[in-house]
Amino acid sequence: MPQPKVKLVVTGDDFGYCPRRNRGIVECFQSGGVSNVSLLVNATSAVDAADLAKRHRIPIGLHANLSEGAPVSHNLKGSTLLNEDGFFHGKTEFRKVLQSGQLNMYEVEQELRAQVKRFCELVGHLPYHMDGHQHVHVLPEVREVFAQVLADFGICYTRIPVEPGLHACPNIPPQLHDFYTQVQKDALLSVEVFRRHRIRWPDVYLGLTTMGENMSVANIKQALGYALGARCLANSLTVPSTGTQTDEIAAPDTDRPITVELMVHPGYPSDPLEGGCGQGPDDFSQSEDRQHELETLTDPSLLAYYKQESIQLCAFRDL
């Protein structure tokens, strides 16, 4: 067979969040729309998700969670990671606590190690990859701890959420666009940290511009078009002095396929009384956008496009 132009890892995030998310992700995998999943080990349906991954031989990694729900470690009473109710601070508040200098990095490390160990208990092997729920793994200080934990466990792959074309996407609300831009700044500054620890990641990351209602066959094709023309972000990325310019793409290594990760969140909307990570499902999980992503990712025209363009779906373990 001819060598593919792109090796595409389509990762279904938040596996384990609720039974309906699990069911949708498995259906998406069986239909060829997802090739890899990322498990939330502190989610209420994590045990079921791990069993499904084993039963259906779904390649699986760890979606390390420091921002939503209850911790895995039993030694975090009174921790700086937790609010007064004993739950993680949340996506926005976690960042505020970190910026205030009040987050204890030893506690971050303790929780990350506990989540890796819990993953191994559930799945039976180490994660093939490990990234951060709500992109916390690229935040200042956290990225140092995260990279060290990856290196200590021998987990080779992570996610660097720097997306070509983000700044040209007109469909993202301003507030969300600001958040994504900050995520990319943090991600660019994490490159040196992960590289120093010999951690790798796919050449190109996609998923911010194709999330939820913005996902369509046309938008995925457009995003992959950027990837087809993109340089190898993994090993040649030079961090700009401003940390803001992410769309300058150099010539790729033509001797091998470009590797791409597409982050997705397919499933069926959560029941309001079922799921989550200890506090119930959030609005994101209950949104009809979950099913919209599922239907888009399994659209026959998209699967035909992959074949036509020599885009081979694979998993992190195949890289």
Automatic annotation (TrEMBL):
Gene3D superfamilies in the record: Glycoside hydrolase/deacetylase (3.20.20.370)
An example Gene Ontology biological process: carbohydrate metabolic process
Taxonomic superkingdom: Eukaryota
Record keywords, A-Z: Carbohydrate metabolism, Hydrolase, Magnesium, Metal-binding
Cofactor(s) in the UniProt record: Mg(2+)
Keyword Metal-binding attributed: yes
InterPro entries xrefs: Glyco_hydro/deAcase_b/a-brl, YdjC-like
Entry keyword annotation includes Nucleus: no
Molecular-function GO term, any one: metal ion binding
Pfam families: YdjC
Residues covered by region (Disordered): 273-292
Family statement drawn from the similarity comment of this UniProt entry: Belongs to the YdjC deacetylase family.
Role summary: Probably catalyzes the deacetylation of acetylated carbohydrates an important step in the degradation of oligosaccharides.
The protein's name: Carbohydrate deacetylase
Native species: Alosa alosa (allis shad)
Lineage: Eukaryota, Metazoa, Chordata, Craniata, Vertebrata
